[in-house]
Design a protein that fits this description.
Helix content is 6%, strand content 36%. The chain has helices at residues 42-48, 149-152; strands spanning 7-17, 20-24, 31-34, 56-61, 75-79, 84-85, 88-89, 99-103, 109-117, 121-125, 135-146. The strands form three sheets. Strands 1, 2, 3, 4 and 11 form a five-stranded antiparallel beta sheet that branches. The chain has a four-stranded antiparallel beta sheet with strand order 5-10-9-8, with no helix packed on it. A hairpin with a 3-residue loop joins strand 9 and strand 10. The longest helix is centred in the first third of the chain and has 7 residues, at 42-48. It is elongated, with a radius of gyration of 19 Å. The two termini are 22 Å apart.
């Protein structure tokens, strides 16, 4: 069976960015998704269309086909008072590289990466961590089959739809924000 929209697909993948492995599935735990359901980057899925189990493909996604370019307006300076809890600034969370979950005025959840800590303010970057990056994928199709009702049921855990309490390929607890990297 070939990869096409509305099919269940499982793949092993490695994502390389700037010559370094940025993400990959754990051995024995392929990335599983329903093709065309909007869970993954469209060009990622598109590169797999027509492939069969056992086939391997390597492809590159430029920023426009991945997570877009870096948006200068998404890098903002916030007063340290934003990071107050119980009347005190939580200094131990304010270090370069820390990912801080926040909400905007409308209540939309987003993750910001601390870029600089100043005396009275903090520079935060709300761009997707992979914005502006060229994504190089090596993918092996492991399984293609018809979708079952279980494949469509919501899964617990993190925001990528995997069934782990957290996973190393997505959002809640690592560099990729609220979306998977693929």
């Amino acid at each position: 069976m070939k990869v096409e929209n509305s099919k269940f697909v499982a793949v092993n993948y490695t994502l390389t960015v700037d010559g370094q492995i940025a993400d990959q599935n754990q051995p024995g735990h392929p990335l599983e998704f329903v093709c065309g359901a909007g869970m993954l980057l469209p060009k990622f899925e598109g590169a797999l269309i027509g492939k069969e189990p056992g086939e391997k493909v390597s492809f590159t996604l430029e920023p426009a086909d991945g997570y877009g370019e870096v948006i200068a307006e998404a890098i903002v300076e916030l007063p340290k008072t934003v990071f107050m809890m119980d009347g005190k600034v939580v200094e131990e969370m304010l270090f370069v590289g820390n990912i801080v979950p926040m909400s905007d005025a409308e209540g939309h959840r987003m993750n910001g990466i601390i870029k600089e800590v100043k005396e009275e303010s903090v520079m935060m970057d709300f761009n997707h961590p992979m914005a502006g990056k060229t994504l190089n994928f090596d993918v092996e199709v492991v399984e293609v089959r018809d979708v079952t009702p279980e494949d469509l049921a919501p899964k617990g855990g993190c925001s990528c739809g995997c069934d782990h309490d957290h996973c190393d390929s997505c959002g809640e607890e690592h560099h990729c924000g609220d979306e998977c990297c693929h």
